[in-house]
Write a structure and sequence with these properties.
flat, mainly alpha, single chain, 296 residues
Amino acid sequence: MAFLILYVIVILMAVGIVSGPRRASFRTRVIYAGLVLAVPPVLTGVGVVTAGAGVINPPSPVLILLGYIIAPLLATWHFVSRHPSTPDGKQDMKSFRLSKGAPPEESPQDIAHDEQVGGKDLEATMVLGGYFALVLSASYLLPGNVLSSMPSVRAFVGFMEVHFSGVERFGLWSTFPEVAQLIHSVQLLLVPAFVVWTVVSLRMRLRKVPGAVWKGLLTIPLFGLAAFLLLSGIYPSGPEISGLSGRVSRLSYTSEFWFSVWSVVITYATAASISFVYVAIRDLFFWAVYSLSGSS
């Protein structure tokens, strides 16, 4: 309960950052908020992992103080100082350098392009890194009887078992079945959110070059099949299966760390495959509409 109270304070910090449109762009605010939310579980996971793999020991008070209070406050202070509030929200970003130095030689267009590319890289790192940190922390921190002690959660996992065979397989062969089933079920629900983020953030689209139509037509069945196999067939497989799929599954059944690694990889790979299919269908639709309207 103490962890929950502390994390509620962290959530309030993140909400305060996101609700400051006069300070920075929406993308920048989301990045800072994600950083604030990711720091506590990351440091908690580090404490648990260093205490011994598979051993659930509470992290030290120093690590709790650093992860739940000091680090989030520093990230919030950095945001407030670097992005001061202005009436129109367009004030230049402050610098933390001791001296201003000479102005950059690059043109404003080059600087804007570099900042845009760097912002996307940082955003992707924060989102996927925070996602992995949350999964890793939950894998070590959730009690082994999480489903037995919570009937409502058990009902949710039972519903997911009916629709996704992988959830049932973790219940059969995992050495931490209830934890693996719950985390995998929640990850499956997050796939649509990652699809939306991938499409919106990366602004994916078919390149306007000759052959784009054929690329789209090939993308739909290829990546559609990949998403279907990732969700229902390849991961996790039975422990007796040979090959790469069998080795990955056996690691996921016996190690919380490798379960976290492979489940994050598989779920985001599924989201990326679905994103490619969506982009292909969307662009082919608009291409068909444009072609029909142009010929009429």
